[in-house]
UniProtKB/TrEMBL annotation:
<keyword id="KW-0235">DNA replication</keyword>
<dbReference type="GO" id="GO:0031390">
    <property type="term" value="C:Ctf18 RFC-like complex"/>
</dbReference>
<comment type="similarity">
    <text>Belongs to the DCC1 family.</text>
</comment>
<dbReference type="GO" id="GO:0006260">
    <property type="term" value="P:DNA replication"/>
</dbReference>
<dbReference type="GO" id="GO:0000785">
    <property type="term" value="C:chromatin"/>
</dbReference>
<dbReference type="InterPro" id="IPR019128">
    <property type="entry name" value="Dcc1"/>
</dbReference>
<dbReference type="GO" id="GO:0034088">
    <property type="term" value="P:maintenance of mitotic sister chromatid cohesion"/>
</dbReference>
<protein>
    <recommendedName>
        <fullName>Sister chromatid cohesion protein DCC1</fullName>
    </recommendedName>
</protein>
<dbReference type="GO" id="GO:0000775">
    <property type="term" value="C:chromosome, centromeric region"/>
</dbReference>
<dbReference type="Pfam" id="PF09724">
    <property type="entry name" value="Dcc1"/>
</dbReference>
Length: 233
């Protein structure tokens, strides 16, 4: 349990940078302390909101805060309902001064995919895509590019499969990150590996420069692929 003051004293960053990162992590402030919601609980909250949107036939671009708090306040703490709307929606105020949220399609589709994939080691890709589309709120469209840095498609298996691979679960050290990725897959295309190394780029450094330093390129069936410069144990 950390307060903003605790984080400022522990982390070499400005308050603005710390608050921005907390927002990226979807952290919420409860009684002055920053907390991360358990993923299952977060999905339970999101499900409450999306079911309410569906039952009220609200447009996904205009979800009223007051009605959400009124309807769901008996099920969950009101600040948690507002937190989930802030995490998965864009807040705005209409001409009458009422607060609404425009729900973020990509973020919701990504969260639903994570929920589906976390219970399976590997998922048949076509079956997953079908179940995934059925599981998101009506009016939303699922696309594989929503899963960058979250899941990986294995096109070499028959049938093609998909599995959970979260960038935040990989090592932070550059060499260890590449070792870890090359253990998972011997050869990577630039498109596939980029979401898993983009965060390692120093200021003004490109993904291409990182690959040149830590990987060796070759051509495979007319496509440039990258493998490790050193043997991976």
């Amino acid at each position: 349990q950390y307060t903003t003051e605790d984080l400022l004293s522990l982390i070499q960053a400005s308050e603005e940078e710390i608050l921005h990162q907390l927002q990226v992590m979807d952290a919420c402030k409860i009684e002055g302390y920053w907390r991360i919601l358990d993923f299952d609980y977060e999905m339970k909250l999101l499900n409450h909101v999306t079911q309410l949107i569906d039952s009220e036939s609200w447009p996904l671009s205009k979800v009223p805060l007051s009605a959400c708090l009124e309807e769901l306040g008996s099920l969950e703490p009101r600040e948690m309902i507002e937190h989930i709307l802030l995490s998965y929606g864009r807040k705005y105020v209409d001409d009458a001064g009422e607060i609404f949220f425009e729900m973020l399609e990509d973020k919701i589709c990504r969260a639903v995919a994570q929920m589906l994939l976390r219970n399976a080691v590997k998922f048949n890709l076509s079956e997953f895509e079908e179940v995934w589309q059925q599981s998101v709120p009506e009016g939303m469209t699922t696309r594989l590019d929503q899963l960058q840095g979250l899941a990986l498609v294995d096109k070499s298996s028959r049938p093609e499969t998909i599995f959970l691979l979260k960038v935040e679960d990989l090592p932070e050290d550059n060499q260890e990150r590449f070792n870890s990725l090359f253990r998972i897959r011997q050869k990577w295309t630039e498109v596939d590996i980029t979401p898993y190394i983009r965060d390692l780029c120093a200021e003004k450094q490109t993904v291409g420069a990182l690959l040149t330093k830590y990987a060796r390129s070759s051509m495979l069936n007319g496509v440039k692929v990258y493998n490790s410069r050193r043997p991976i144990s």
